[in-house]
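User: I'm curious what two different proteins look like when written out as structure tokens. Can you demonstrate?

Assistant: Sure. I'll show them one after the other, since each token string lines up with its own sequence. Here's the first protein:
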Amino acid sequence: MFMMDEVVGHMTEKVVIPPADQIEVVPRKHTHKSVEDYLPYGTNGNMVPEMAHAGEGYKFHVTGLTHDERGYPNMTPPMQKKLVTRLQDKILSAVERISMFEEDSTENADVIVVSYGITSRVAQRAIDMARAKGLKVGKLRLITAWPFPDFKIRELAARTKAFVVPELNLGQMSREVQRAAEGKAKTILVPHAGGSVHNPEDILAVIQEAAR
């Protein structure tokens, strides 16, 4: 699922697709069960169901509804719990492997700016301005919003004074940063209600205050 903000959605930029040999391909595990024994959403204790090769006689049903291991709709509370819990556990068990973010100069930073979406562009300008003034400012740009990289925030909170979180809303991700920091570093929201993007000077002012 892609979460797009309006400004990013209206931008036109060059997309660079790497050569095929540089793209990691992780093949799905295919089933060795017979056609009669195969359940397309059966896990056998594994959180990722096995796939069947198309055209080899396996049958399966696809629906967007809560479903049983055959793929047929089943909206009962027990089945809902079983399915949703498995899907969540599958993601949460791999947080450190699948969380994506861009990190820059956080090693000795007094302040770390955490941003995402189009606000990251404006935040970069504020970071550059702060560094030009001699401030030790790091950057953490979130590429995936969920699962949230708690482990990275905890690691950074142990060695920085504060997180500055500019958001093109009145505060959502800042709460996640504050929660993951566990009180080891301050979290300062720089909100913006919309209609435009942040003024870099507004973010800079908060960085300067946080660094004092």
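Here's a second, unrelated protein for contrast:
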Amino acid sequence: MKTDVEKLEETRAKLTVQVPYENLKSEIDKVYKQLGKQVSIPGFRPGHVPNQIIDQRIGRGYVLEQAINERLGDFYGRALNEAELTPLGQPEVEVVETPAVEGKPGGDLKFTAEVDIVPDFELPSLEGVSLEVTKLEVSDEDVEKELDQLRDRFASLKTVERAAQDGDFTSIDMVAKIGDEEVDSVSGVSYQIGSQSMLAGMDEALTGMKAEETADFKSVLKGGEHEGEEADVTITLHKVKERELPEADDDFAQMASEFDSIGELRTDLRGTVEKMRRQQQALEAREKLQDYLVDNTDFPLPQKFIDSEVDRLAEGQEDADREELAESVKKQAKQQIVVDRIANEREVEIDPNELYQSIFEIAQMYGVDPMQMLRDQNQVAAMGQDLRRNRALVSALREVTVKDEDGTEVDLSEFTKDPAEARAEQAAAAAAQAAEEDSEAADSEEEN
């Protein structure tokens, strides 16, 4: 296959691609075979119709068209790789020459593809770059907040004799009517005020009510055959319950953790919060580095690409701010282009097992079937690209200095380890643990 490249503009190129007949022949044969099974021609069994007969009855032009349509995307992709071009948007493709439609089979496929591309640019140097991140601080209030979240997991509900307020759990009956017709009703359901999980206006109606009181309000129905219609809603409150947290004492520490005292638990929670803050510093440094790279890299983007992305984002939004969307499109595109260049220059590769593990973690986080995600190859490819970009930024982050607001250098080595080094450390730790377990087993046997 031969590819000629003509730069039409800094951000647009024209590819002229010539594909030998041999490169298309396997697909042509495949089309002939499929048609041979589909057509019914007297004197020939299905699947045994000669190619010449198919040419007479259907036309070789149709066969070539099907074969070309099937492989054109592959040839275009190979041409881009050979030309070392990164496309932005869809190409304008024109087939200018096909293999012979009559006479002896043969002849080349020739097509052109005009496409917007990423222009040439140089990455900024990272030498001497210093990034500033938020100072790591953990207050007693932060620790108590973490402790309260832990206590909340062990909370119980207690019925109270007072007016309902935000955060309370209630037991209610509800009837919705449109005119004189009852369109929905529920009895004895539990609802937390402030959750906004049922009808709009319900939180306001319940707040201030006491047990066995009734209130009326209007609301738009969220589902059913009357979805979107306004209804008159009557709500009756039966019980008000508040969440009661366990006391933060030694008994709670022993129940909720492996620690014997609340002091030990607080110390552990302080370490947890500190680790979270360090992770936030690492994320902030990564974002600052990405901003630095984009701000110090100058290259144009095709206007057609920007307009197309803005159209996509603004679809269905009559009051969309197109200028604001355009700036967002340009920033995100430049971020991805710059980081992709870093990944390419550093030959960043993603282990398939790492990608699959990431997919399973995301699926678990959002409660979806990981196999469903794996079946969507476009989604898998996009997640792999995101993982590769993140790896590239982490690689670059190892080469810059990171300081906090006081000028103190921040050690992010825990979050910027090379994946190979991290895997080696994990393997060494596993081997050491296995050796220790074998030694303990051997000592136990000797004692016996």
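A detail about the second structure: The chain is about 50% helix and 20% strand.
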